UniProtKB/TrEMBL annotation:
It comes from the Bacteria. GO terms for cellular component: membrane. It is a multi-pass membrane protein. The keyword ATP-binding does not apply. This is Yip1 domain-containing protein. The keyword Amino-acid biosynthesis does not apply. Residues 10-177 form the Yip1 domain. Keywords: Membrane, Transmembrane, Transmembrane helix. It comes from Propionispora vibrioides. It is found in: Membrane. Its main location: membrane. The chain crosses the membrane at residues 31-50, 62-83, 95-116, 128-149, 161-187. InterPro entries: Yip1_dom (IPR006977).
Length: 193
């Protein structure tokens, strides 16, 4: 079995094969360690930044809420995506997806050195670097999530993207329906002429 460092290296540089192998082996303990590292390190950077700005107790509360919120989202997201993947005909396990998604969060750690680099730049370049690096890491993480779903359930790339986006699309459709229902409750039908 590969060490945790070898698996992280493979996820960063050979993600398709690495995430499929992780989904098959299901190293939940290692995935939890990687997930916690990928949440705690960026939050520590934010914690020290907010603490330096003078807010006394908010950073500690923010750190705890981020940690538990991220863990909850990881677990619930895995459950929802597993259900959707099963409905789309995928063959895999929820534990395999949980492990693969835990490793897929690792690029978030790379935000910290990019934030440090941006703090050394002039203000205009700094804002561009922070925004650009955030978007690159976000797209990279979503790309790894697609590979995690694809490797776990043995589905095509398009189907993996659809599985990943289905909760978002369902949420948008639900909001649209709620807006229509609220609008129909406010507007008298049929209009009085």
């Amino acid at each position: 079995m590969d060490t945790i460092f070898e698996q992280v290296y493979d996820v960063l540089f050979h993600p398709r094969a690495a995430l499929q192998k992780i989904a098959e082996r299901r190293p939940i303990g290692q995935a939890l360690v990687i997930f916690l590292i990928s949440v705690i390190i960026p939050m520590w950077a934010v914690y020290f930044g907010v603490k330096a700005s003078g807010l006394p107790q908010a950073p500690g509360v923010m750190l705890v809420l981020e940690l538990f919120g991220s863990l909850l989202f990881w677990l619930l997201g895995t459950a929802v995506w597993h259900l959707i993947a099963e409905l789309f005909g995928g063959r895999g396990t929820a534990l395999g997806l949980l492990a693969a998604l835990g490793f897929a969060h690792f690029p978030r750690v790379l935000l910290v050195p990019l934030w440090v680099l941006s703090s050394l730049m002039p203000p205009g370049i700094s804002a561009f670097l922070v925004t650009g690096s955030f978007l690159v890491i976000l797209v990279w993480s979503l790309w790894l999530d697609v590979y995690a779903i694809k490797g776990t359930y043995q589905v095509s790339g398009a189907k993996a993207v659809l599985i990943l986006l289905t909760p978002l699309l369902a949420g948008v459709a639900g909001m649209f329906i709620i807006m229509i229902l609220l609008a129909s409750a406010v507007i008298p039908w049929p209009p009085n002429l």
